């Protein structure tokens, strides 16, 4: 018979508390030191950029984000020509950039000789910073988005960088879970029109050519959404049936039946953003189960999906008014500062 004092159970509990601690089960990989591998990998990865000043969100290839960050870095340096960092044509697929950037790795950004800081060094360093940031980001919710400051990733301030917590509009509930499956989340201010209509000449209304500010709409390229769907074992082809496409473990893309209908507006007849069938939504796994139970899943209607297209997630919440020529000019001149910080700079 073993006798134990009154303090024995308490000591055992204290011992357990001191011997066990929370351990993350997320595996973090060592960043590649190969510039060629960096281009191939990040061209197939997905990044989210939230503009806190204009209340718009963008989902783009991670390689595109890295290239833009490189251009901003060079613009902040003294005596670095504007064309020192490669520029590329408008694109929607990150793989379109790989061949053009492969020969630019040795381009000198700063310094000379052995001390030269080259384009490949800059891209590899920025990618390492983004990888460190995504490892620390908290999962976003329906009302709060978490990310790190765009400029902090670039400039690496000596004080370090604190994760930002940003309150979002009701429209963000239609896309917030995408933030939890992308490969990078950064926040900025006044980024401008990251994604616009490819053929502006075919659209007479300038309001239809750009995503409205202030409503927390998320615009994502089809290529990026395809990457996320493929990670879940799904398929997004040029012709897709109107069914639910899995984006994350608990969310499905409820594809709107007519997102690519040609614009029918002129300067004075409103805008496409007043249509309800243009906006995309995510639904939860529970909502999908309820639809299955009551047999309300979408019918098998084939929807043509343009390879280089983009869609907007959100809820119709604006009533656009016809604008004068001066008002249109003023709006088009806004949001061109691509390296501004968010107003929320406190840690």
Automatic annotation (TrEMBL):
Residues 322-347 are annotated as: Disordered. It comes from the Eukaryota. Residues 335-347 have a biased composition (Low complexity). Residues 322-331 have a biased composition (Polar residues). This is Uncharacterized protein.
């Amino acid at each position: 018979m073993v006798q134990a004092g009154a303090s024995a159970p308490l000591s055992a509990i204290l011992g357990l508390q001191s011997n066990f601690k929370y351990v993350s089960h997320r595996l973090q990989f060592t960043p590649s030191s190969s510039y060629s591998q960096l281009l191939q990998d990040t061209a197939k990865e997905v990044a989210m950029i939230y503009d806190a000043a204009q209340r718009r969100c963008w989902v783009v290839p991670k390689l595109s984000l890295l290239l833009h960050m490189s251009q901003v870095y060079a613009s902040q340096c003294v005596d670095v020509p504007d064309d020192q960092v490669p520029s590329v044509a408008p694109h929607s697929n990150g793989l379109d950039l790989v061949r053009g950037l492969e020969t630019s790795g040795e381009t000198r950004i700063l310094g000379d000789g052995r001390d030269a800081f080259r384009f490949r060094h800059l891209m590899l360093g920025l990618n390492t910073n983004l990888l460190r940031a995504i490892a620390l980001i908290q999962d976003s919710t329906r009302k709060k988005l978490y990310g790190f400051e765009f400029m902090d990733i670039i400039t690496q301030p000596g004080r370090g960088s604190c994760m930002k917590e940003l309150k979002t509009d009701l429209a963000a509930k239609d896309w917030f879970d995408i933030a939890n499956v992308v490969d990078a989340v950064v926040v900025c201010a006044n980024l401008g029109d990251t994604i616009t209509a490819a053929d502006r000449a075919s659209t007479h209304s300038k309001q239809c050519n750009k995503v409205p500010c202030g409503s927390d709409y998320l615009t994502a390229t089809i290529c990026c959404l395809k990457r996320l769907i493929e990670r879940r074992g799904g398929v997004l082809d040029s012709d897709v049936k109107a069914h639910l496409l899995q984006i994350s473990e608990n969310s499905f893309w409820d594809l709107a039946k007519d997102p690519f209908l040609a614009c029918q507006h002129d300067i004075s007849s409103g805008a496409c953003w007043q249509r309800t069938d243009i906006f995309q939504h995510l639904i939860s796994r529970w909502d999908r189960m309820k639809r299955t139970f009551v047999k309300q899943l979408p019918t098998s209607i084939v929807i043509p999906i343009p390879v280089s297209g983009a869609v907007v997630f959100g809820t119709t919440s604006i009533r656009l008014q016809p604008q004068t020529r001066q008002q249109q000019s003023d709006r088009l001149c806004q949001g061109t500062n691509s390296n501004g910080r968010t107003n929320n700079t406190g840690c």
